UniProtKB/TrEMBL annotation:
The keyword Metal-binding does not apply. InterPro entries: DNA_brk_join_enz (IPR011010), Integrase-like_cat_sf (IPR013762). It comes from the Bacteria. It comes from Nocardioides panzhihuensis. Keywords: DNA recombination. This is Integrase. GO terms for biological process: DNA integration; DNA recombination.
Length: 156
């Protein structure tokens, strides 16, 4: 998913559907529904993480990712810049250096899904790529090249 704007959610086991607003102004704004399946491991389960966040944030309908700072309006959606700041802070705490942004969250999902054999249409629906050529050329072909390389069998 894109880092902004914040999605709203409807919990419907097993998983959840999020309605994501269009990040660009359109004449007739409408959201896109993105499904999120439960994970296989508690520590990486996105539904468990969402449940934990909603226990802290509260379950009032509205944007999922909101500011909880004192003085912030209730349920004010966070920006993509906030997501990038959080990613940078955690990367630094993990000892990672260099340029860090939130984009690899989306790119990594697309690449990992392609490596797992997920179809382009399903990946595009999840990541909300409008241009399939960009998704294929920047994420899927490089992932397939790594997966299909014969150099892995050379014993180097």
């Amino acid at each position: 998913m894109r880092t902004s704007p914040s999605p709203t959610s409807n919990l419907s086991p097993p998983g959840c559907c999020c309605t994501c607003a269009d990040p660009r102004p359109t004449p007739r704004p409408r959201g896109q529904i993105v499904g999120i399946a439960p994970g296989q491991h508690r520590e990486t389960d996105p539904i468990a993480a969402l449940d934990a966040w909603l226990a802290h944030r509260g379950t009032t309908p509205g944007p999922v990712f909101t500011s909880l700072r004192n003085g912030a309006p209730p349920l004010q959606s966070i920006s993509g810049n906030v997501v990038t700041s959080v990613v940078k802070r955690h990367a630094e705490a993990a000892g990672l250096t260099g340029r860090v942004t939130a984009h690899p969250l989306r790119a990594g999902h697309a690449t990992a899904a392609a490596m797992a054999g997920v179809g382009v249409d399903q990946i595009a629906a999840q990541t909300r790529h409008r241009r399939i050529d960009i998704l294929v050329d920047r994420y899927i072909r490089p992932a397939q090249a790594l997966h299909a390389t014969s150099s892995r069998y050379l014993g180097l």
